[in-house]
Amino acid sequence: MAEIGVVASVIAVIQLSERVTTICKSYIKHVKDYPKELRAIFVEVASLKIVFESLELLEKSTSDSTDSAILVTLLCADGPVNGCQTALKQLEKLISPSASSSSKSPPQNTSKRQRVQNYLSANFSQQRVEEQFERLRWPMRASRAKELLEEVMRHKTTISLALGGEILRDITEIKCDLKEIRKALDEDTIYKICNWFEQTNPSTLHNSMVSLYEPGTGEWQQSPRCLWLSGIPGAGKTVLASYLIQTLATHCEDPVNKQHTMAYYYCYHGHSQDESIPLLRWIPGQLCRRTENVPDLAQKIFQRGLEPGLVDLLNCLASVLQDEALQVSVPP
Prior knowledge:
Layout: H1 2-30, H2 37-61, H3 69-74, H4 80-95, H5 97-102, H6 110-123, H7 126-197, H8 203-211, H9 237-253, H10 276-291, H11 296-304, H12 310-321
Helix pairs in contact: 1-2, 1-4, 2-7, 4-7, 7-10, 8-9, 10-12, 11-12
């Protein structure tokens, strides 16, 4: 029932606005030297009608289960919607030709009025007579019409501001939704490019080496800037490297060290290949995953659909390393 009342109030104001603008338009079109206030009334009430049509759309788009808080405020007993309705009713009555012509003058002026009307009727057409009487009546009503128009304008401003806030809220929600969609699309593109770059995945070998690690092995290291290991096959170089990689990965995963990142690759004889190209494909792919960003050069290489050469990959790695997320100062 409350929703029916909301719709009825809004539609009532729209209908009143239409009637008032129709009366003003008729005056402007047919009456010569019409009161200039009528043009102001026409313009303001016509714009009010547009505002209420927007309000009607808002009401229709509101969920059936929950009324919009703005609508509840606007449609309260002393709210701007009811205020507009009351002011428009009075304004319509004030400028309506039928209402003004039916109003009777005081008895003592009847004879004088009759004489004026008889004179005008004898010398002018009926339309001209009505114009003359409207011109005589209007100064007495202009002040009241101005007051009512100001009241309508005040209520219209309140409603427009409320609608503006509601529209801004909707736009904000739409932007958030679009941002989420764009983010999902961007992430999908990033992962697709990274997957294309990462031709040889060394994580299987890494996991295998980690499983062979014995606790306590390699703890003698003091985080050197560079570590060179040499030894015969099977001496444990790869296992020791896996320990270092795992230690660095654990360090970088700590939220305290979120500004740090790492990437690794195993040049393994079992791959039976020149490891330079796979290395230069894997490292940029891993770093792009960390930063969640793919530089333009990497995108162009991917979009070409051709196997990248050594020079392309070196330039791509340099481009990836320029990412702000990787610009971390290294202690001397």
